[in-house]
Design brief:
Blueprint (H helix, E strand, L loop, with lengths): L1 H19 L21 E6 L5 E6 L6 E7 L4 E8 L5 E4 L5 E6 L3 E6 L5 E6 L5 E6 L5 E6 L3 E6 L4 E7 L7 E4 L5 E5 L1 E7 L5 E10 L1 E4 L4 E5 L4 E6 L5 E6 L6 E5 L4 E5 L5 E5 L7 H13 L5 H14 L4 H10 L3 H16 L3 E3 L6 E6 L5 E6 L4 E5 L5 E5 L5
Antiparallel strand pairs: 1-2, 2-3, 3-4, 5-6, 6-7, 7-8, 9-10, 10-11, 11-12, 13-14, 14-15, 15-16, 17-18, 18-19, 19-20, 21-22, 22-23, 23-24, 25-26, 26-27, 27-28
Length: about 400
């Protein structure tokens, strides 16, 4: 009798084991609307590389999060995907077919851009995943968490390739350099790694730095809670330039084409500073040097007029002003150049105002014609870079 029962039970057990093998990855539970409130504040924004779509991540750690996608031409919302925790970072793959989101449930996820469907859940972080970034060739995704780790994942498989040690308990931003040679992280210090080997190249820690952006393959900018924006050379590790914002700097976005640097602090508005690493052309340089001569003119009005013209030249005059304030034999010129340079480094070209709560995300469109700002007020505003006027407002539809 016992032997017969064993013969009957064995096939059933074998059947159940075979049925469970090779099953698809267990899907996360559907967010429980009663467990936590729905997050309304915008935490991160990103444009697709072709400029067709804009995505936003919403929600704090103890809120249900959403990622929302809009068509920029029509300003229509295409879809919204809800998560059990907030989404502080979003990114598009270079081909635009895939999106990555960081989720406060210790995971990152890959989504199909067309439908919002979750393609892959990337597990491995032991605390909040705070940042995601695609490499320019689309073959690597970087994720950064509050577990002192930055992870590199091979795409499209979504397999973990390497883990980099991060020296701080918190991390807020990740980005690859334009050609993909370097990976930059910020969240206390700022650290640069060789993106291919994972070898650390440089770490700077001038003050608490929540955000950093590349200007090119040779330098990057950091924004600090001390209110400074600093330019660093990757090769030498030297600070090349220091600007001062309006207080603590929380986010930065840079457009080399527009020659603009957007800064988000703990404020409802966004100042835009003129910034470029391009050297002035021969004609502009000749004009700058002629104005430097006028700064030492005997006539006071001529000196004042030359100073105003120099400011009108813009950031292109910064290097010449820096040189003259140190090397000019005339004390008058040195003093005036120091003051003029200080004005260039501290006076915004424009300030974008309209949000009713703190701005937490800034991003330039790929063609540099638009700036997107996301706020805790629950809206994404679009601003024309040519005249700094608001040209659109995107608000996630109620779920």
């Amino acid at each position: 009798m016992h032997a017969a029962r064993a013969l009957l039970v064995l096939p059933v057990c074998l059947f159940l084991a075979a049925a469970s093998f090779g099953q698809p990855e267990k899907r996360d539970k559907k967010p429980d609307s009663k467990a936590s409130p729905l997050g309304l504040g915008i935490r991160g924004v990103a444009f697709s590389a072709n400029g067709v779509w804009l995505a936003a991540g919403l929600g704090e750690p103890k809120q249900r999060g959403r990622v929302v996608l809009w068509d920029l031409a029509s300003r229509k919302q295409l879809w919204s995907n809800e998560e059990q925790a907030g989404i502080p970072s979003v990114a598009f793959s270079p081909d635009g077919k895939t999106m990555a989101i960081a989720v406060y449930d210790n995971t990152a996820k890959l989504l199909d851009t067309g439908s919002g469907r979750v393609l892959k859940v990337l597990r491995g972080h032991k605390n909040y995943v705070r940042a995601v970034a695609f490499s320019p060739d689309g073959k690597t995704l970087a994720t950064g968490g509050w577990d002192r780790m930055v992870k590199l994942w091979d795409l499209p498989a979504g397999t973990e390739r390497k883990t980099l040690a991060w020296p701080s308990e918190q991390l807020f931003g990740l980005t690859f350099s334009p050609r993909g040679q370097w990976l930059l992280a910020a969240g206390g210090p700022a650290c640069v790694w060789n993106a291919a080997t994972g070898e650390e190249k440089l770490t700077v820690n001038p003050y608490h730095v929540p955000w950093a952006v590349f200007t090119d393959e040779e330098s990057f900018l950091t924004g600090g809670y001390d209110g400074t924006i600093r330019l660093w050379n990757i090769g030498t590790g030297k600070e090349l330039l220091r600007m001062r914002g309006r207080g603590g700097v929380d986010r930065l976005a840079f457009s080399s084409r527009a020659r603009l640097l957007a800064e988000s602090g703990f404020s409802k508005s966004v100042p835009l500073f003129e910034f470029t690493l391009e050297s002035p052309g021969p004609k502009e340089q000749a004009r700058i040097r002629a104005l430097l001569i006028k700064l030492d003119d005997d006539d006071y009005e001529t000196r004042e007029s030359a100073g105003k013209e120099m400011l009108a030249v813009g950031f292109g005059a910064e290097s010449e002003l820096r040189r003259a304030m140190k090397e000019s034999p005339a004390a008058e010129v040195r003093i005036r150049c120091r003051r003029l340079r200080q004005q260039l480094l501290t006076t915004p070209r424009a300030t974008l105002a309209g949000h009713t709560d703190q701005v937490e995300a800034v991003a330039f469109s790929p063609d540099s014609t638009l700036l997107a700002t996301g706020s805790r007020d629950g809206s994404v505003r679009l601003w024309s870079v040519s005249d700094f006027k608001e040209v659109g407002r995107l608000v996630p539809a109620a779920p």
